Amino acid sequence: MKTFDRYLEYFLASLMALMLFSVCWQVLTRYVFSSPSSFTDELARYLLIWIGTLGAAYASGKRLHLAIDLFPASLEGKSKYRLSVFINVLIILFSFTVLVVGGSRLVYITYTLGQVSAAMQLPLAYVYTILPISGILIVYYKIRDIILMSPEKPDLSSQNNPS
Fold it and tell me: What averages of pLDDT result for each successive group of 10 residues across the chain (163 residues)?
């Protein structure tokens, strides 16, 4: 999985570089050439969707996501283990329901209706495809976290990152 995570890092960095180039090109064409590019604003918007959603899955896999650990920090042993498993199961259920199922429905509907973006004429189903992909990644990472947790040491943040 380390190799996959490395490719995901490079992919996210490439998307960031492409978004940076798109925004810089927009500024250059607007203020220097006085003829703004028609597609760069839309491209940057869609890249931001991809970076944010896929970045959330990546952060979840690296256990870098935002968490409030006031209550879990006060627990120890099996109680902390059960709470960690419960939290991960809730994340799995949410990600599966909202991102995988809901995202797949959104992709299907936009594909069936043939919706395209205004400037680039890109099918919106392609833009929304990142929702179920990120949902599947989050579900995978959380299942992996549950498997790697042990009742003796339920705190994954103190263990080495397996990916």
Answer: 93 98 96 92 96 97 84 85 93 98 98 96 97 98 93 62 50
Q: Residue 150, exposed/middle/buried by CB under 10 A (0-12, 13-18, 19+)?
A: exposed
Q: How far apart are CA 19 and CA 36, in angstroms?
A: 16
CA Rg value for the chain: 20
For 121, other C-beta atoms within 10 Å of its C-beta total 8
Q: Under DSSP, is residue 116 helix (H, G, I), strand (E, B) or coil?
A: strand
Report the C-alpha gap between 49 and 66 in whole angstroms: 19
This prediction has a pTM of 0.89
Q: What are the angstrom distances between the C-alpha of 29 and each of 41, 44, 121?
A: 12, 15, 21
The candidate with the shortest Cα–Cα distance to 132, out of 100, 110, 106, 102, is 100
**Contact of 111 with 123, CB cutoff 8 Å:** yes
Determine the length of the chain.
Answer: 163
Report the candidate in 48, 47, 52 with the shortest Cα–Cα distance to residue 65: 52
Structure tokens at 127: 């833009």
In which residue are the tokens 């059960």 written?
82
